[in-house]
Amino acid sequence: MTRDFIRIGVDLGGTKIEAIALDSAGKTLARRRVPTPAHDYGAIVQAVATLVHDIESDIGRRGRVGVGAPGAISPHTGLVGLSNTAVVNGKPLNADLAQALERPVRVANDANCFALSEAIDGAGRGAGVVFGVILGTGVGGGVIVNGHIIEGRNRHAGEWGHTPLPWMTPDEYPGAPCFCGHSGCVETFLSGAGLAREYEKRSGERRLATEIAALAEAGDPSALVSLERYQDRLARALAAVVDIIDPDVFVLGGGLSNISRLYDGLAAGVGEHALTETFDTKILPNAHGDSSGVRGAAWLWSPGETD
């Protein structure tokens, strides 16, 4: 019965693996986390399996398992690619987890899981089209339409971080090199490192994004200008998304989404660049914080599904 349906979500991160159990209404029943054995693929698979079994022992129930992880599983080879946990790349993570847990397992990109969580019962709840934005160590995104992840033919939908920054100014061009092999990607400007690079250019000092935000609140001129440039670039990048999919709401996540100053005037900036007469799309901070990814992994399953 629906009331007995249990979802177990696993967030496979670079430093930690977290698992959560949700009941059919989305209530948290149990939560556990362990450090990620980042250099040992077999140990990662075993750690996920152990976490799931421990969660099931805690609640006394067996559940459907969804996993959020960086990168994507190729629909052509079944192997992981573009994960920043390098030992996972080229491995059949989905198949190996299914074997270890002796049941079907769904694996999705972690940004997609974030977006799904916020669309189901977070800041984007009730919206038809939600674009989830990750602004952190990297820049990622996820597209949710009517409660379902849009992965695309090659499972790379929403990867706006590896599109060129729109409408570059002469001093921005050609942009910093990106790990993907190109230069000037949105990620090189809007990641934490991108903000730090902008601040260093203006102040001569290297600071973390959190420190730059604090300095801006204290009135530091270099920090204030750096955040203004960051907001302008974010507005341009979001405007390009509006021109392609025109979502009902943007939900921002990742560490930089916690900088409250970013939201002041951001919508107006997007509206200046988006090809629309009136721009009234909501741009919201996430509702579930660090739990969005693991919750979204759990939401990969719906009651009544068998595979």
Q: What is the share of helical residues?
A: 25-40%
Largest sheet: 5 strands, mixed
CATH class of the largest domain: Alpha Beta
What distance lies between the first and last C-alpha atoms, to the nearest angstrom? 17 Å
Number of domains: 2
Mean pLDDT: 95
CATH topology grouping of the largest domain? Nucleotidyltransferase, domain 5
CATH second-level architecture of the largest domain: 2-Layer Sandwich
Shape: globular
The gyration radius over C-alpha positions equals 20 Å
Secondary-structure element order, as H and E? Answer: EEEHEEEHEHEEEHHHHEHEH
Can you tell me the CATH superfamily of the largest domain?
Answer: ATPase, nucleotide binding domain
Q: Report low-confidence residues grouped into runs of 5 or more.
A: none
Oligomeric status: single chain
Residues in β-strands, percent = 15-25%
Number of helices: 9
Number of strands: 12
Widest β-sheet, arrangement of strands: 3-2-1-4-7
Structural class based on helices, strands and sheet pairing: alpha/beta
Structural overview:
The chain has 307 residues and is of the alpha/beta class. It folds into two domains: 2-113, Nucleotidyltransferase, domain 5; 123-286, Nucleotidyltransferase, domain 5, CATH 3.30.420. The protein has helices at residues 41-59, 93-101, 110-121, 186-190, 192-203, 209-217, 221-245, 266-273, 292-298, and strands spanning 7-12, 16-22, 28-35, 64-69, 72-73, 80-81, 105-109, 129-135, 139-145, 148-149, 249-253, 282-285. The protein has a five-stranded mixed sheet. The chain has a five-stranded mixed sheet with strand order 10-9-8-11-12. The protein is globular. The two termini are 17 Å apart.
